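Chain X:
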Amino acid sequence: MKGREGSDREMCEVEREYMVVTDGLRVRESDIPPYKLRGETAELRCDYELESSSIYSVKWFKDDEEFYRYLPKDTPPTHYYRMTGVTVDKQSTVPARVVLHKVGFNSSGQYRCEVSAEAPDFNTVNCRGSLMVVEPPADGPVITGGRTKYHVNDTVDLVCTSSPSRPPSRLSWLINGRQARPEFVTKERPYMGKDGLMTQISRLVFVTRPSHFHGGKLKIKCVADITGETLAKHSAFSHTFKPWERLFLASAGGQVLTPPASLLLFLFLASTLGLTRLR
């Protein structure tokens, strides 16, 4: 006979796992939503089956701290433990499905369900997944600084400030549709407001060259995206929360000759001077 400390444990380390089986204990499906909007309800599922023995316990953890326990032989069988960021909807919750009411930013973390069979084996299956609580920006980024006209060799100095969000926006710069060179960009650490939302600031500084002016125009965009590496793999999130863009438009403060045009002018003048000397 195996005691609790010596039990066999099977882990499913993904957000969704189907048919996890260990000696008669089966988890048909586990589902920890990867993200939720602040204030929404989050449903954590761990659907299990027992083929031969009965259930000993079902436990739920956040960041390895227990907040829910079901032991059918106890009176009462269900126990709740207080935890910051975790408010269990007791009316909607059953052992295989825990419902969290009005999630907040401190609800983010790694959740785990632990299902254990009765004696003599005490076989146990653990399934886990990460939940991130987000709030998208209410508006696009704002560009400050700059002038309406620039000459070649002028310095462009712009600041882009994101709208508050959680997680903070990733800001990127485009100059005439092309990614700005890294040495042009300086990013500050995001700062957090009293409401828990975060604002990101990025500065773009570069010296204009003829190639920066297309048709006498200089187009600069600041793009704000909250997807990030963690959420980028979830197509539903990326599809729902499109990046915000803000356009800055300036004109050339005089005639701008691109390198090919400058070369043609040089060749024309050289040939003209050559013909004049020959005469």
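Chain Y:
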Amino acid sequence: SRRFRKMAAPAGRYLWRVLTPRRGWVWPGIDLRLAAAPTLVSAVPPARPYAEKTAKKGSQRTKKEETKKKQVTRRRPLMSKPVDDVYLTWHYERPSYEVEEAVGMLKKFQQLDFTYPKQYVYINVFLDMALEKKKKVEPFASSVLLPHRFTEETNKVLVFTENEQEAEIARENGAAIVGGVELIKWILEDEIQADFYVAVPAIIPKLIPLRNKLRRKYPSTKRNSLGHDIPKMVQHFRECLEYSVEDESVIKTRIARLDMPAEGIIANLKAVIHDMCTFKPLTYGPIVQRLVIRSSTSEGLLLKLDGLLPQVEKVEEIKNADDKEKNADDEEKRVQESVST
């Protein structure tokens, strides 16, 4: 039987090759029958004769809703004070220091690290700009005259005036540039630049082309850069410290040098903080949330705010200051209207 199978297999293959081109003669209509015969596995799925059942509302949740739900992780409360000298910092609250203690620590860090003794002292101030409902304090820039100067550098002040006597007074008090309307073209073309711009009320209507160019540096009574007391304005802006609100309501500025007496560093710090507090009424809470002090080479030390911020009892004084500021704005508008007419 095995020998018969071996002989039958080649014979069958030969017979199939002979009959394949002539299968239409032997079995007429075989091609149509094979094409019409149903296949075991259909390539195209049959069309559904009925509609899919709609899912009930709320029965299934989308993936977006599931991803929104985050697992609530319960954390152990942080401990207040470490017992040992070596500990994991993330298990304890960040220590805060009195300003006198923090300044002493910065001086000690400098001695232990053998760093430059005259390095700058910086503060990082984190602000709360919120007012009632959705209102916020607008980002601001200000200048403050520190009680203890820590640098011999002076700012470049430009004075706008068309009066020869006022121009002479400005030069005597240290103004770098003094002039009138002729300076407008040079400023717009960036041929003249200054750190601060001061003007007298008589010339302010003619400086309107510079409003978009100077922006915050445009002379204004709010910034004490518009007035008749030229010596006072020039002296203030030549020696003042300028700071501004950066992204995420943070102010970073230097306030002193590390080799200064501790009393001088603290006095400069308080002067800057008190100037910042004037931009938000105390009725909405303090504007300073956190205060960090550091030197150029040291870590930041968190300060306790007790004794650094204005007291709530002085709300009336702040309101009076706001009233004075409003009166100054009204006076500035009246000056512009009177001069323009």
